[in-house]
Amino acid sequence: MMVKNQESLFKSIAPLVALKSYRLSMAEPHILRDFRQSLTNKYLYISLGAVVNQERSRQKVVFVRKICIINQKGGVGKTTTTINLGAGLSRMERKVLIMDLDPQGNVGVSLNQFSEKDMYALLVESADPGECIRNMGKNLDMISSKENLTKIETAMTQEQQKTTLLKRKMEKLTGYDYVLLDCPPSMGTLATNCMLYAEEAFIPVSTDFLGFKALKSIMKTIETVNEQYGHHLKVTKIIPTMYDQRSKLCKQILNEMKNEFYELVAEPIRVNSKLKEAPSAGKSIFSYDKESTGAKDYFSLVKAALQDEELFLKSKASMVSKVKMAMAKKQQAVAN
Ligand SMILES: Nc1ncnc2c1ncn2[C@@H]1O[C@H](COP(=O)(O)OP(=O)(O)O)[C@@H](O)[C@H]1O
Ligand SMILES: [Mg+2]
Fold it and tell me: pTM (2 decimals)?
């Protein structure tokens, strides 16, 4: 009944009124779905999208996207992707926190800045996240790491639930649209901490034979961790990296990836020397050379991540309403 009224209402309203309903739909996802179905005027839908995008920056952060950038293989572009995705999103008015969970500390090295209290202090020395965060510019914060993070295995032997340490430390931190985790190239305690904190995984994969093998292996690892810990980490992007357009093998591997993982596969990041040079200047690719193919490719990835936001918000909102319903039922059962 309510949906029917909603339909006739939406057919006659102006975009700005619809925008209010869009916000409402963040809490009630079925309304958005019905709204979309009822749209006969395509222009209204397009202009609504634009208005929503403009308005988005002024909205309070509702849900944070926690994304681990993960692959057990080294040198596939995890750090490069974390930094440039983070820098790109921050330029699109998203508030971003980059966390370096790799003891090689390449995030700080690449940006030539370090947090005073680092990842080790956060995980082992009971520092608060707020104390460890270093501001890198508008909308972009970072917690760096260094070699002492390798000591975590021994430092945490007393820790009862050492695999969920990061998740528990980060529980109260709010105010970010995105938390991006640069993961280590091994599958120990640190990587498990990343996987159990994150809700999404972006997997950079070098477009070569060994890269494709590593992709299958990390997919399996994520499945195993989910089963073992009752977690729901979802792979939401596979990012082909080091792509050489002239190489037959690269093309072939990219096709194989797409045949197996369909729309999860993002546009490839081409080999580009500017991406190698940017860290030596302590800059993201957008500050170092915004005309480079590296900047163009990473901007495509940023846009793809922004496009997924609506889906993410919807799934979160539906989860919240399910939890609310379950709680209401429970309360009613107790009252009865
Ligand atoms: N698309 C690319 N083209 C050229 N060099 C790249 C590209 N992506 C990353 N690199 C370089 O390759 C090396 C490994 O990348 P990195 O992001 O550190 O990988 P990982 O974090 O997975 O070990 C670095 O020197 C980096 O600058
Ligand atoms: Mg790295």
Answer: 0.81
Our answer on whether the CB atom of 139 is closer than 6 Å to any ligand 1 atom is no
What pLDDT digit, counting tens, does each position of 41-75 carry?
333 333 333 334 444 444 566 789 999 999 999 99
Q: How many Å lie between the centroid of ligand 1 and the Cα of residue 207?
A: 13
Which fold is adopted by the domain 65-319? Rossmann fold (3.40.50)
| Angle, helices 15-27/293-335, rounded to nearest 10 degrees | 60
Q: Spell out the domain ranges in the chain.
A: 2-58, 65-319
Ligand found nearest the CA of 218: 1
Residue 141 vs residues 107, 165, 284, 309: alpha-carbon distances, Å: 12, 21, 13, 20
Burial class (CB in 10 A: 0-12, 13-18, 19+), 150: middle
The pair phi, psi for residue 61, each rounded to 5°, is: -65, 125
